[in-house]
Amino acid sequence: MQHSEGENPVLDDAYIYVCSSSELEEDDLIECKTGEETIVVGRGEGKVYAVEGICTHAYSELVDGELDGNCLTCPLHFACFDIRDGSVLEGPADKPLRVYKAIEYDGSVWVNYEGS
Ligand code: FES
User: What is the tens place of the pLDDT at every residue in 18-48?
Assistant: First the structure.
């Protein structure tokens, strides 16, 4: 997500604080909840991304899965999703994950819970 210099994107009420940037290292996953939404945030190839935190195949919390590069693997039946756009890279899941905007600003990771 691009922002012009000086603009503070997290002044938008839709952004919620997730963690400090240093807490989310490469291939780390962290879960955050807002209302009824469960969101999983990960760092893949240096960038932060956020997708819905429950697998679209059956009920499984993706924060317990693994992130390898951009491939987020479900811990239950091992479907693989592209964390950048939520698409299915490998079944058995056949529905993509909802995607949220994730940004790093001022040493912290933020997610826009309204989705993209
Ligand atoms: S619950 Fe995720 S692949 Fe089945």
Answer: 999 999 999 999 999 988 889 999 999 999 9
Distance CA 74, CA 68 (A): 12
CA nearest neighbour of 24 among 45, 2, 43: 43
Question: Could you give all domains of the chain from N- to C-terminal order, each with its CATH number?
Answer: 9-112 (2.102.10.10)
Residue 15's H or E segment, with its range, is strand 15-20
Residue nearest atom 4 of ligand 1, based on CA coordinates: 77
Residues in the ligand 1 pocket, defined by CB under 6 Å: 55, 57-58, 60, 74, 76-77, 79, 92-93
* 15 Cα distance to chain centroid: 13
